[in-house]
Amino acid sequence: MGSSSRLTQVAREIDLQIVTAQLNSPERLAHFFGQVLQEVGQRVRLVESLDYRADRLGSIFSYFRRNPDEALLYARTADHPADQEAIANRAYADCNGNGNVESGDGWRFRGRALKQVTGRANYRAFTEDHAQMFGEQIDFEAEPDLLETPRYAVRSALWFWHANDLYSLADAGINRAAADSITAIINRGTDSYEQRRENIRRLSEAEVFANVCRFPSLARASKTRNEKRCLDPCCSLAIGPRQSIRGPNDL
Predict the structure, then answer these.
(1) How many CA atoms lie less than 13 Å away from 130 in the CB half-sphere?
(2) Which of 41, 71, 90, 156 could form a disulfide bond with 64, CB atoms 3.0-4.6 angstroms apart?
């Protein structure tokens, strides 16, 4: 599936869930997509890449800071490609509900979807809340690859946004404090705070989401295949030819 087709499906799914997920204002959407752009990039990559050099592994993951010899063994070098499965199983072992290195949980539950859901515990939490939020019972812990599909990639991001009340932080406006507070919840240890702020600022200044209703009432929503959608015609992403969502490398 090409990135353009994937983006169209992503936009449609968000449009269908715009009220349910509290993405019903230009500010909320700018913050949401500014974060998404940093997580998945211009090509809307829905599964985490662990194709790192040894020095980068050590700067990101504590396991490889403690075990620099293994960073050299598994990272990308001039002599061999990165062993991404081995990297994931070590980097994510014994955290977020994952088992040890030998369990394979690190690779099985590596980052996926628009917000890069990572770790068995987070896949389980999404499973538990998905039926209530979206009216469909699916076991994402048993089928983690589903988060690589546009529908569930979007839904997991909307779930995370809603479950962590990130929309209320976005209501503080398009400013550094609001952006950084959201980034700290999504990926506290990232080195991309500045890039995320810039993504959000650019989206806001371009008025990409200017046609979205501001805080429509849930009473005006209808259910379509277990999904809520605002009935007001202005409540739509409706990304036009001059309102493209660009990746962080283009901003």
Answers:
(1) 21
(2) 71
Helix (H) or strand (E) holding 93: none
Q: Which of 227, 164, 234 has its CA nearest to residue 13? A: 227
Do residues 86 and 104 make contact, with C-beta atoms less than 8 angstroms apart?
no
Give first-to-last CA distance, the chain, whole Å.
24
Judged against a pLDDT cut of 50, whether residue 20 lies above it is answered with yes
- pLDDT at residue 15, rounded to an integer: 80
Dihedral sign computed on CA atoms, order 232, 238, 240, 244: positive
Q: Is 104 left (phi over 0), alpha (psi -120 to 50) or beta?
A: left
Between the alpha carbon of residue 205 and those of residues 30, 177, 224, 231, the distances in Å are 10, 17, 33, 27
Report the distance separating Cα 222 and Cα 112, nearest Å.
Answer: 30
Q: Are the CB atoms for 169 and 178 separated by under 8 Å?
A: yes
- Helix, strand, or coil (residue 164): coil
pTM score of the predicted model: 0.77
Work out the pLDDT band at 232, boundaries 50, 70, 90: very low
